[in-house]
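Quick bug: Glutamate/tyrosine decarboxylase-like PLP-dependent enzyme output formatted oddly.
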Amino acid sequence: MHEYTDQTRALAADILRYAEERLRMDPVPLDAPLTKDQLDEIAGGAITPRGRGGVAALDLFAEKLAPACLSIDHPRYLSFIPCAPTREAAMFDLVVGASSIYAGSWLEGAGAVYAENQALRWIADLAGFPEQAGGSFVQGGTIGNLSALVTARATAREQAAEGVRPYRIAATVGSHSSIATACRVMDAEQVQVPVNDRMQLTGERLREVLLEHGPETFFAVVATAGSTNFGIVDDLASVAEVCAEFGIWFHVDGAYGGAGLAAPSIRAKYAGIERADSFIVDPHKWLFAPFDCCALIYREPALARVAHTQHATYLDVLNDAPEWNPTDYSVGLTRRARGLPFWFSLVANGTDAYTAAIEHTLAVARFAQREVERRPYVEVVRDADLTVLVFRRLGWSTEDYYAWSDKLLADQVGFVVPTSHEGETLARFAIVNPKTTEDDIRVLLDSMA
Ligand SMILES: *Cc1c(COP(=O)(O)O)cnc(C)c1O
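Here's what came back:
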C-alpha cells in the first residue's frame, strides 16, 4: 500500500475524476443525512482484514456515504454559516493532502509557512494591524478564540500586581458559544455586558460592567465583528477605547464577519478593529476556503509564544531557532498547512475577486431584506448588518417553522433551519455563497407564503 502500482495508477485516475466531477457540479445535489441504522445497512462492515481495494472503497464513498452528507456549498444551503470554497482552493486541498507537509515549524515546512504568512498578512493589512503582527491558521474559530484568550490571560497575569489573578472575560449575549466554551476550558468566568438597542456591545456599557466587577479581575474583552445569529458588528471603536483605558486585552471574534473587512461598502462598520490585541477570521466561512481554516492574528505575537510554546528536549531544535513556528501561537502542536488552499486561491484569483464576491453576497442579502419587507406575510426582526437576515413568518408556530424547514430538505429545495431569539422561533438566512442568487431567495420566500 506504499508502492505505486498499476492499481494505484487506476485509482488515482478515478479519484481525480471524482474530485473534478464534484467541483464541476452546478448546482451540487443538496443530499441529506441518513440514520445510523440506514448507514449500517448500506455501508456497515466496510473495514475488513483483507481490504476491498481502492476502487471499491471509492465506490462505497461515492455511492453510499457522500449522498448522506449535506453539500454545504449548495446555493440554497443558508443554515448556520455555510462554506463555499473557490474551485482553486478546493482543488489545491488535494495537493496539500498529497504533499506530506508538516506546517508546525519553519524547519520542516518553511515554504508552506511562508505562504500561509502572506495570506495572514493580507488579512492583517485589511484590519490595519502593524508590521509585527502575525499568528497562524488553526482549525476554527473555537480554537482561535481559545488560543487568543489563553494568551490574553497569560499576559494579564504576567502584568498583574502581586497576588492579583484576573479570571474574567467581558462579552455579550450575542457572543459565540465558543467563548463560553473557552471559559469552561479555562475555568474563567464570562460576565455578560448588556447590549444597546442595536444589539451591540458598546464602550459605555462595558465601562459600567468593568467598574461594577472591578477592572483588575478581567483579563479580556471579547467583541464580535459579525455575530453568528444576526451578523451584528459591535461598536469596536468605543470598546477599544475602554480596553485601552483599563489596560485590558481586546479580542475581536470575526470568525464569520471578519471577511467584511475586504468589502468597501461595509468597511466603516469595523472601525476600531485596528486597535485589537488579537482577532480571528474563519476563511472557511466567508472567505471561500475549504474546511477547516481559521486565521488567528496577534498584535504582539511574542506574547502568544510565551503562552503557547511547548517545551521538551526533543523540541529544542525547533524552539532554539529564531524562525516563525506557527505551532507557537495556538493550542496544539502538529498542524497541516490548512492555510495553503486559501493562499493558493488568493494568488490565483487576486484580492479584487474576493472583494467582488463578498460584495455580491452583501447585495443578495440586501435584496433578501427588501423582499422580506415587501411581502406581507414576513417581517424583518433586525436590519442586516452583513449577510445574515433574521425574519419572522407572521402567524407561524415553532412547529410550522420546523415543518417548513423539514419539507425544504425532503424536497431537496434547500437547507434552511430555524433559529430563535428571546424564546421566539424565527427564520434565518446566512448568505456567504456567491452562487446564491436573488432567484434562490425568491424560491425560499415563496415556499413560506
Ligand atoms: C463560527 C463562529 C465561531 C466558531 O468557529 P468554528 O470555526 O466553528 O470553530 C466563533 N465565533 C463566531 C462569531 C462564529 O460565527
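Actually, after a second look the formatting is fine. The domain at 351-446 is CATH 3.90.1150.170 (Aspartate Aminotransferase, domain 1). Closing.
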